[in-house]
Design goal:
about 350 residues; 2 domains; 7-stranded mixed β-sheet; disordered C terminus; 1 helix
Length: about 350
């Protein structure tokens, strides 16, 4: 099979099985883009060095003690689009503040977070654990390390007694409230839902982060299916019956775009750069593949934009990157002669048809 690409972006075709055990072809296309700093509100622009597709989950440190920074491109299907970030919240005007809010909007999806400077749960003599006032800060990483979660030992001398918060074992604020002496303090979360402030150390909160969720964390883990003896006895040749395609979605549940962006949607990011708000549009691209078979049949297929990764970790905003990933299926029930990746670039303001080829 010959692969021909008519785009400047890296592509990858591969085959796998759907949840029913049927073989299918998958095409991935990924574009590295930048903000047009001279024209706020303009479409994102491709960068000269596109780099390679990312074939593995990349963590900030070890996968056992840090959060997922960049999720692998190598998944077959996402029922909704992921939007996630490697970003920092900057205080307004870069002036130290105890708390402030940041906001994002991509097309029809919008969300806000409240961040705080360092703060602690402190053990008081008569009132138990109380949350301290936040210290002034100019920036807070929007990672799961600063969100609600964490782990602790019920027996400090026994490593086997570790209790981890299943939705975020690397966070802060989840601890043994029955332990500790007067005067002790425990780091508290610095990221929260503005509508559900953290104020009770005994309450489990939903971790709030715009980063990616690791596959072994909840709620992703439960969607992977049950790989037990019954599954092995059935042959283990297809995914478990309780597997959900949503397992492949890595974005926080609040940042999963219903369906897929079509292109030309507005992007507005508030508080994620020390140089001011970021305003742009998605490029108005329609990504396509064309499958040519030995029998003469040709099948054009649209690809869905199902992943937007905003890598705003660079010190210079000129080096900020937005990685856009399109994905779709093609039949492999007859001999395939050639696969072509194609790209239609439409003028801004031109409506695209919805992409139905990836369901």
């Amino acid at each position: 099979m010959e692969l021909v690409t008519y785009t400047p972006f890296p592509v990858l075709p591969f085959q796998n099985q759907d949840p029913q055990g049927r073989r299918r072809g998958v095409m991935i296309m990924r574009a590295a883009m930048r903000f047009d700093r001279d024209n706020p509100g303009a479409p994102l622009l491709p960068v000269p060095d596109q780099g390679a597709l990312n074939f593995q989950d990349r963590y900030r440190d070890s996968h056992t003690n840090s959060s997922l920074r960049w999720a692998s491109d190598l998944v077959p299907y996402k029922p909704n689009a992921d939007i996630y970030f490697d970003a920092t919240a900057y205080a307004p005007g870069n002036a130290p503040a105890r708390t402030w809010e940041v906001a994002m909007r991509v097309g029809t999806l919008a969300h806000q977070l409240r961040v705080s400077g360092p703060r602690w749960w402190q053990r008081k003599r008569w009132r138990g654990w109380r949350l301290s006032e936040a210290e002034p800060a100019t920036q807070v990483p929007l990672t799961y390390e600063h969100a609600y979660g964490g782990s602790f030992r019920t027996d400090p001398e026994d490593p086997a007694t570790v209790t981890a918060f299943p939705a975020n074992p690397v966070g802060r604020g989840y601890f043994d409230v029955k332990a500790g002496a007067v005067g002790d303090q425990v780091a508290a979360p610095q990221i929260e839902d503005p509508t559900k402030p953290i104020n009770d150390p005994t309450t489990p909160y939903t971790p709030m982060s715009w980063g990616a969720t690791a596959p072994v964390w909840q709620p992703r883990k439960n969607k992977a299916g049950t790989y037990d003896q019954q599954w092995l006895d059935a042959g283990g040749r297809k995914l478990p019956d309780d597997y959900q395609d949503a397992f492949n979605n890595c974005a926080h549940e609040t940042l999963q775009y219903t369906g897929y962006p079509l292109g030309d949607e507005e992007i507005y990011l508030q508080g994620l750069s020390p140089h001011g708000d970021l305003h742009a549009r998605l490029p108005n691209y329609r990504a396509l593949l064309l499958a040519r078979y030995h029998g003469g049949a040709m099948l054009p297929q649209g690809l869905a934009l199902d992943t937007l990764f905003f890598d705003l970790s660079a010190s210079d905003p000129a080096d900020y990157r937005v990685y856009l990933t399109w994905r779709g299926f093609y039949p492999v029930d007859q001999p395939l002669r050639r696969l072509e990746s194609r790209l239609a670039i439409l003028p801004s303001g031109t409506n695209q048809e919805a992409v139905h080829g990836c369901s």
